[in-house]
Amino acid sequence: MEYDIASFHVNSFNYLLDEGINLAISDIPAEKLRLANGDAVEIRYCGATVGYPTLKDDLIVPCNDDLKLFPAECRQRELTYKAPIELPIMLKSNRCHLNGLSREQLIKHGEEGNEKGGYFICKGTEKVIRLLVASRRNYPIALIRRNFRDKGDLFTQYGVLMKCIRQNHSATIMTLHYLENGTITIAIQFRNELFYLPLMYIIKALVMQSDQSIYQHFIRGRAKDLFWAGCVSSMLLCCQEDGIRDQESALIALGSRFRVTLEDRIGSWETDQQVMKCLSTFVADMSAKATFCDGTVNASGI
């Protein structure tokens, strides 16, 4: 396909059909239940297949010409050009019957000879999804905002924000807040809720290291900065006072905070540590951005 403005839409939709939809399916939580004999059972989706637009909605494989539904017919009959699982199909994508047709064949099926695609037909009307300009992904931005002070006691106007994008292209916002007592709190947006957690809780949950090892890692490159060394010591001391002494206790503490939010994903019999296993993909995403939790703090100087 020659590269024009429509090709970017088509290629993006093809990615959704071939890879993206399975990434989305893998993010659907498992249904958990207990049988009468006490056994725990999990039921989850393993994948999804998108078919081709047809006159019969239950077909998910390529069909013969008599059953194919073409865009021109959808325009005339005010239908939606869609495939099984009720997904609208983008014109000229790899699930569209126009894909790969010659100029003469396109005209035969009621299209323009130079049809590029890149849009949908919904109830007979052509619709396009605009490409929007969004914040740079996975890039930390140091900010000074007065409204940060309104987040709670001891909050200052200083913070570091990053829009984090997972492999399935879902997004979450993380913000490091510097507090007046020299500690750092991380604000995590998860399932449309905002959680404020001590940064060191997250660090201890992600790595199985001693306090001394974590301390040395945080002051690396700033060993002579006594103020920063004091901040790191204060955060580690707060963990000790709260009983967060190792990875296990950190996972239990975090699991108890997320349990209510994950009520539909976990069983009542599961422990707080198992709750964190339900957050494994989310935690793994945070682990992949470990530099945001330490190196970024050093670089921003908060």
From TrEMBL:
SUPFAM superfamilies: beta and beta-prime subunits of DNA dependent RNA-polymerase. It holds the Pfam family RNA_pol_Rpb2_1. GO terms for biological process: DNA-templated transcription. GO terms for molecular function: DNA binding; DNA-directed RNA polymerase activity; ribonucleoside binding. Keywords: DNA-directed RNA polymerase, Nucleotidyltransferase, Transcription, Transferase. InterPro entries: DNA-dir_RNA_pol_su2, RNA_pol_bsu_protrusion, RNA_pol_Rpb2_2_sf. Residues 86-177 form the RNA polymerase beta subunit protrusion domain. Its EC number is 2.7.7.6. One of its GO terms (cellular component) is DNA-directed RNA polymerase complex. It is an enzyme of class 2 (transferase). Belongs to the RNA polymerase beta chain family. This is DNA-directed RNA polymerase.
